[in-house]
Write a structure and sequence with these properties.
Belongs to the DinB family. The protein is mostly helical and about 170 residues long. It contains eight helices and two strands; from the N terminus they run H-H-H-H-H-E-E-H-H-H. Strands 1-2 form a two-stranded antiparallel sheet. The radius of gyration is 16 Å and the shape is globular.
């Protein structure tokens, strides 16, 4: 289904898009970043906080990271301080890229079992499907954050994978 090279490509895309979103959000005021705009997670900051919570949750399953506090309902408030959220995002993206460099075909071919707090039960799924979901979840919520940012007039630049990553990264994917 997917390969280690695809995982590395998506990790690079994730990190670059996060750099672009956070740079655009830096141009907003604190009040704008925290303003509830009716999005699923309310605000730009709430959406980005949930996304970071989700990444850390999946990486706790994939790579043994410490599981973040709380659950989906509290995830928008996990990072109330903008500078702390930005620093954590940079650290997590570097960790995701490091993990992606270690992913092997055998690991992707396995299954993962965990207790899902959202479903309230033990779940087991193919690792390749879960990694695909992990990257889709990022893209989905970054799209929401992008819409919120553009609503304030902020610009992220291009968001299309084939046009923002260097050719050597694209060739490896």
């Amino acid at each position: 289904m997917i390969t280690p090279d695809w995982v590395r490509l998506m990790a690079a895309y994730n990190a670059e898009m996060n750099r672009r979103l956070y740079a655009a959000a830096d141009g907003l005021t604190s009040a704008q970043r925290s303003e509830d705009r009716g999005a699923f997670f309310g605000s730009v900051q709430g959406t980005l906080s949930h996304l970071l919570w989700g990444d850390r949750t999946w990486m706790s399953r994939f790579d043994g990271w410490e599981k973040p506090a709380g659950g989906i309902p509290t995830s928008p408030g996990l990072y109330a301080d903008w500078d702390a959220l930005k620093a954590a995002r940079i650290e997590v993206d570097a960790g995701i890229e490091a993990w992606a460099r270690r992913v092997t075909p055998d690991w992707l071919g396995g299954d993962l079992s965990w207790f899902s707090g959202a479903l309230g039960q033990e779940v087991s799924r193919p690792m390749a499907v879960l990694v695909t979901h992990f990257f889709n979840h990022q893209t989905h919520h970054r799209g929401q954050a992008h819409a919120l940012l553009t609503g304030f007039g902020a610009r992220t630049g291009d968001t299309d994978l084939p046009f923002i990553l260097p050719p050597d990264v694209l060739a490896a994917g």
